[in-house]
Amino acid sequence: MRHFDLSPLYRSTVGFDKLFSMLDTASGVEGSASSYPPYNIERLAENSYRITMAVAGFTEEDLSIEVKENALTVIGEKASEAEGEKDYLHRGIAARAFERRFQLADYMRVDSASMEHGLLHVDLTRELPEAKKPRQIEIKGSGSSKTLEGTTH
């Protein structure tokens, strides 16, 4: 049987976690790979998420966050330092430019972004429109009325 590695999709999408969990369970796929800059995606509540990126060495002015259609893009570019300004004996803190894209599920909204201790936090919320939320449908008939639980699509 073929195994498909869905981890690249799982790491770059937010709000599709239930779908990917089902696919991972069905296919038995596990594992992850890292890339620069490292990041976490966590679920804070049922419809609330946080992306945390390790951006040591960057300031708020070096970072930009853009949401366009269903894509969240975080770009980091350091202001160029003058040549010969610093004489490094070892340079282990990466300060290279990056662009990280996250594909967002429908109805995801970016609430806020903050930076603390070299970590960039981007908070997101899934807001389903009223027409997409589960609701109860009343069944009318002769005699007594009953209700049927259902969802709209």
UniProtKB/TrEMBL annotation:
Family that this chain belongs to: Belongs to the small heat shock protein (HSP20) family.
Region (Disordered): 133-153
Top-rank taxon, per record: Bacteria
Naturally occurring in which organism (per UniProt): Cohaesibacter gelatinilyticus
Keywords: Stress response
Keyword Cell inner membrane belongs to the record: no
InterPro entries: A-crystallin/Hsp20_dom, ACD_IbpA/B, HSP20-like_chaperone
Transmembrane regions listed in the UniProt entry: none
Protein name stated in the entry: Molecular chaperone IbpA
Domain SHSP, chain residue ranges per copy: 30-142
